[in-house]
Amino acid sequence: MTFAGCQLVDVLSLNAVDTVNSSNMESLFENISLEANQFDLHCSPIKEYLKHKTVFITGGFGFLGKLLIEKLLRCDVKKVYLLVRGKKGKSFEERFESLKNESIYTEILKANENIFSKIVLVSGDLQKLELGIANDDQESLINEVEIVFHVAADVNFTQSLREAIETNVRGTREIIHLCRRIIKLNVLIYVSTAFCTPSFEVHEIYETEFDCDFMIDFVENLKPKDYDDFEAISTRIIQPFPNTYAYSKALAEKMIHKHENEFKIAIIRPAIIATAFHEPLPGYTDNVYGVNGVVCGAGLGFLRIFHINNKLKANIVPADYVINMMLAVSWLTVCENTSNYLQFILYSQVNKEKLEEISESKIDSTRKEEIKIFNCSVTNNNPVTLKNVFGLFAIIPPNIITCANFLKYSITFCLH
Q1: In 3-state terms, the chain is what percent helix, strand and coil (to 5)?
Q2: Which parts of the sequence belong to the Thioester reductase (TE) domain (predicted)?
Q3: Any idea of the CA torsion for 270, 274, 275, 280, to the nearest 10 degrees?
């Protein structure tokens, strides 16, 4: 399976940087130290960039957030600020204790039992103005943070449009307002969704009928007695998007786009996120939602029939691929015009002839800042169909009685 996030060399060298023309190739190679003894092939420049950085994460207690924290701690960051609120009757301190017991942190705890001392909890709420963060905590973030990962979102597809806008759109606006005040900010990475545009090939912001700020103001001025009337027309408002989640993420991207020239910003658009493929644990997940639930249900024998078009592409990406892309893009957005960046792409099997073939102009370090968008989804090079995915469960010999079948039939008998 080939994913956009896998081909990091192509993403870095072909799509995200101006290269040099053939007349300047020799001077480029002379000016950049390319000797193997001067370039540590075992030390990723991305890891070096993240080392000793202070990071602020929203959504750190979600599936992606947990994996992001684990990877950042392995990169030896200086400090990780986590925006957290109480949820499901648990205080944020209790949620943090549960987080530390996750199996994905076992190895890093063996290496450093005090690793979680790098994590600082910041009480707040994405639905509140100024994120509900206390003044003292705001000052700490403003003075210390260098990288912001905005991962948090209300991912309920059936959520009311009003609440989706309050969380996903206004929450993003509040993140931007905070970032504008952060003194040492390097980059803001916003995690969107591949389904916020009608086409996976679009690497630009999709236009919506209503402006993001207008929708925020409209929702804020709604009276409680008007909530039901607003929801009654919401299906018409969100067209052509399939649900309030996709629509609110498109509005959030518009909000990001409005501030693209104020500081470095990049958008990651993952498709359907599945379990981790390689790291930190193969097959790791903390939920059975979406595709994970379907796979678990089919594998356990509960889900016997699933109505699909088996010719459609299974636009599924492993969670660790998404995390790797997030970290790589944070480095790319900041370091793309440095010699360290050029060393990396030249030592990443991008040969001289390929650079000559695709190059047209010199690197311009003074060009206007533009928002960078990275679609993390299945490519056309080696597509996987739904038949490839769910057909795996059909080849199991039916005459083998498994525990899963026994459990399934037992429960079915009891329910009926």
Answers
A1: 50, 10, 40
A2: 57-326
A3: -10
pLDDT for 93 beyond 90: no
φ/ψ bin of 119: left (φ > 0), alpha (ψ from -120 to 50), beta (otherwise): beta
Q: Are strands 272-274 and 316-318 parallel, antiparallel or unpaired?
A: parallel
Q: Is the pLDDT of residue 40 over 80?
A: no
Per-position DSSP letters for 271-328, written without gaps between them: -EEES-SSSSSTT--S---HHHHHHHHHHHTS-------TTSB--EEEHHHHHHHHHH
Which pairs count as long-range contacts for 29-35, CB under 8 Å and 24+ apart, including other chains?
29/352, 31/339, 32/339, 32/342, 32/343, 32/346, 33/339, 33/343, 34/343, 34/346, 34/347
Which pLDDT score, from 0 to 100, does residue 404 have? 52
- For the segment 364-389, what is each residue's pLDDT rounded down to a tens digit? 333 445 778 888 877 666 677 877 77
Look up residue 61 and give its amino acid. Answer: F
- Which residues are 266's β-sheet partners? 189, 372
All residues at 6 or more sequence positions from 402 whose CB lies less than 8 Å from its CB, including other chains? 301
Distance from the first to the final alpha carbon of the chain: 42
Q: Which two tokens stand for residue 328?
A: 């790589």
DSSP state of 187: E
C-alpha distances out from residue 282 to 103, 276, 319, Å: 12, 6, 10
Q: How far apart are CA 139 and CA 117, in angstroms?
A: 20
β-pairing verdict for 119-123 and 147-150 = unpaired
Tell me the pTM: 0.78
Q: Which residue has the tokens 């053939």?
A: 22
Give the span between the Cα atoms of 333 and 330, in whole angstroms. 5
DSSP H or E stretch at residue 413 = helix 403-415
d(CA 292, CA 193): 17
Strand partners, 90: 87
**Residue/partner pairs of 107-116 with CB below 8 Å, 24 or more apart:** 107/280, 108/70, 108/73, 108/74, 115/73
Contact 153, 167 (CB under 8 A): yes
Lookup: tokens for 341: 């960046």
- Indicate the domain borders of the chain: 8-271+315-380, 288-311+385-416
Amino acid of residue 373: I
CATH 3.30.750.24 for domain 8-271+315-380, yes or no, is: no
Q: Are the beta carbons of 205 and 253 closer than 8 angstroms? A: yes
